[in-house]
Design goal:
about 250 residues, mainly alpha, Helix Hairpins, about 0% strand, rod-shaped
Length: about 250
């Protein structure tokens, strides 16, 4: 468990957040998921650290017991050897028995000393693993705090960058000076409508002038008809006769 946790810790600690943001379709969701990953791995790392520390303390306890046992059997071996030496000086047959007891005690002491050598190696390895897990756990906690602290800033920057890119693409693709653009086509259509209105106005004005001219011609015809009627009436005839008489008298 501890080794797998160390592997995941290493991957997260080495993660390039900026590159991940660049590649993410939704930076906010990516950051939230990354924070959840950190939180989950922190919880697992805490359990792994607690487990390795617990195992380390057990090994240390066993080592203390082995040290005490080695010292105890060493003391027993020394006591038996002294007793054997005393009995040898007295010429007692029990000297050999205590000498054998001293050898047994020495073998036990050597066995515990060998256990101590193995335990010291295990404790060194367990201590190294515990230190790595603690270091990785501290880095995870720090990076998670940094992510939480910068989350809003990073999301805001990502959104602003995306919006800016969209604006730049829109500005690049649309030009109001393009004669084929919708704006210019609409303006040209309006100009044509205005020209058509002016043309219809001129046509309407021309028709009105013609109507007035026709009206004047009709009035002239009526005047001609009226005068012709007067000439043909008796009054006009009397005037014409008086004129003729005056002419004759003069002659």
């Amino acid at each position: 468990m501890a080794q797998s946790i160390l592997g995941r810790i290493g991957q997260l600690v080495r993660a390039n957040v900026n590159q991940m943001l660049d590649q993410a379709e939704d930076p906010e969701k990516m950051l939230d998921q990354l924070i959840r990953d950190f939180t989950s791995n922190i919880a697992e790392a805490e359990q792994a650290v607690a487990q390795t520390v617990g195992e380390l303390r057990l090994l240390e306890d066993d080592r203390r017991e082995a040290e005490d046992a080695a010292q105890e059997w060493g003391s027993k071996a020394a006591a038996a050897a002294r007793r054997a030496q005393e009995l040898q000086g007295q010429g007692s047959a029990d000297a050999n028995k205590f000498q054998e007891l001293a050898k047994v005690a020495l073998r036990r002491q050597i066995s515990f000393e060998q256990q101590l050598t193995t335990m010291n190696s295990q404790i060194a390895q367990q201590t190294e693993l515990t230190d790595k897990l603690k270091s990785g756990l501290d880095k995870l906690r720090f990076k998670r705090e940094e992510l939480v602290r910068k989350r809003d800033e990073l999301v805001s920057r990502a959104k602003m960058a995306a919006a800016s890119r969209q604006v730049q693409e829109a500005v690049r693709d649309v030009s109001i000076m393009d004669p084929t653009s919708d704006l210019n086509r609409f303006e040209e259509r309006i100009r044509r409508e205005e020209a058509m209105a002016r043309g219809m106005e001129e046509v309407a004005s021309s028709n009105l002038d013609e109507q007035f001219a026709q009206l004047e011609d009709t009035e002239d015809d009526l005047e001609v008809e009226a005068r012709l009627a007067e000439l043909q009436s008796g009054t006009s005839g009397g005037q014409l006769g008086a004129g003729s008489t005056a002419g004759s008298t003069g002659s």
